[in-house]
């Protein structure tokens, strides 16, 4: 796994839904980028920064935040914790 630095977190973004609530099937081009994911790794706490996250938290983040990367065939997002809006229960 990857270890983020300087107040960043690694997020596994949830898959986009295949259909709307009313049952309309969406083509892949119409799907919006998901803004919800699961925290897979967080940076270590330092004197200047203490994380509010823990691995396994489900979070909501800013729409265009972070950088995507692929590791072992899975896509992840590395994002600054300041771009995370909320922890979702």
Automatic annotation (TrEMBL):
Pfam families: Cpn10
Gene Ontology CC annotations of this record: cytoplasm
Entries under InterPro entries matching the protein: Chaperonin_GroES, Chaperonin_GroES_sf, GroES-like_sf
CDD domains associated with the record: cpn10
Compartments, as annotated in UniProt: Cytoplasm
Keyword Chaperone: yes
GO terms of molecular function: ATP binding; metal ion binding; protein folding chaperone; protein-folding chaperone binding; unfolded protein binding
Main location: cytoplasm
Keywords: Chaperone, Cytoplasm
Known role: Together with the chaperonin GroEL, plays an essential role in assisting protein folding. The GroEL-GroES system forms a nano-cage that allows encapsulation of the non-native substrate proteins and provides a physical environment optimized to promote and accelerate protein folding. GroES binds to the apical surface of the GroEL ring, thereby capping the opening of the GroEL channel.
Family membership: Belongs to the GroES chaperonin family.
Subunit structure: Heptamer of 7 subunits arranged in a ring. Interacts with the chaperonin GroEL.
Protein's name according to its UniProt entry: Co-chaperonin GroES
Naturally occurring in which organism (per UniProt): Aerococcus agrisoli
Gene name in the database record: groES
């Amino acid at each position: 796994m990857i270890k983020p630095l300087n107040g960043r977190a690694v997020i596994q973004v949830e898959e986009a839904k295949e259909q709307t609530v009313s049952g309309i099937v969406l083509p892949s081009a119409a799907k919006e980028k998901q803004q919800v994911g699961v925290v897979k790794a967080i940076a270590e706490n330092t004197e200047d920064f203490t994380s509010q996250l823990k691995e396994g938290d489900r979070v909501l983040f800013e729409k265009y935040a972070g950088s995507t990367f692929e590791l072992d065939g899975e896509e992840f997002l590395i994002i600054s914790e300041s771009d995370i809006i909320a922890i979702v229960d």
